């Protein structure tokens, strides 16, 4: 079940581990994890296991700041996608990369100490 990736604590992303598990960051993180796909609001709510009230409280700001953008419309439904041109999104992606490299270096150091 793919929703488990976003609901269970043991699957927290690097961004959520380092910057906190706030609802706004969880929404942004979901889109960052899926940059090639677009989603309806309902799909995001279901994947995150978040209440509609909480989602809409934060999504308005995310959309207003153009962190996500409308990628297409199907009937009345709007589909959203991460806006890879947004400076904040670029910064978050770079932060995620740097944190990943830092974690990998730390793991490598641990392995070298264990071998000795």
Helices and strands in order:
Blueprint: H1 4-7, H2 14-19, H3 23-33, H4 41-48, H5 52-64, E1 68-74, E2 77-82, H6 87-115
Antiparallel strand pairs: 1-2
Helix pairs in contact: 3-5
Q: Which descriptor suits the 3D outline?
A: elongated
- Outline the biggest β-sheet: 2 strands, antiparallel
**Structural class, judged by helices and strands?**
mainly alpha
CATH superfamily descriptor: Winged helix-like DNA-binding domain superfamily/Winged helix DNA-binding domain
List SSEs in N-to-C order: HHHHHEEH
Number of helices in the DSSP assignment: 6
Number of strands: 2
Tell me which oligomeric state these chains represent: single chain
Report Rg: 16 Å
CATH class: Mainly Alpha
Helix content: 55-70%
Distance between the termini: 41 Å
Biggest β-sheet: strands ordered side by side in the sheet: 1-2
Uncertain runs are none
Mean pLDDT: 89
What does this entry look like structurally?
This protein has helices at 4-7, 14-19, 23-33, 41-48, 52-64, 87-115, and strands at residues 68-74, 77-82. With 116 residues, the chain is mainly α. The protein has one domain: Arc Repressor Mutant, subunit A, CATH 1.10.10.10. Strand 1 and strand 2 form a beta hairpin. Helix 3 packs across helix 5 (52-64). The model has no long low-confidence stretch (mean pLDDT 89).
């Amino acid at each position: 079940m793919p929703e488990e990736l976003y609901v269970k604590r043991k699957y927290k992303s690097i961004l959520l581990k380092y910057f906190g598990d706030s609802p706004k960051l969880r929404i942004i993180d979901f889109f960052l994890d899926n940059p090639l796909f677009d989603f309806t609001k309902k799909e995001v709510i279901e994947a995150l296991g978040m209440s509609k009230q909480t989602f809409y409280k934060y999504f308005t700001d995310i959309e207003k700041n153009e962190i996500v953008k409308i990628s297409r419309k199907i009937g009345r439904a709007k589909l959203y996608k991460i806006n890879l041109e947004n400076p904040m999104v670029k910064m978050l992606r770079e932060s995620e990369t740097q944190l990943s490299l830092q974690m990998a270096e730390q793991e490598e150091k641990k392995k070298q100490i264990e071998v000795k």
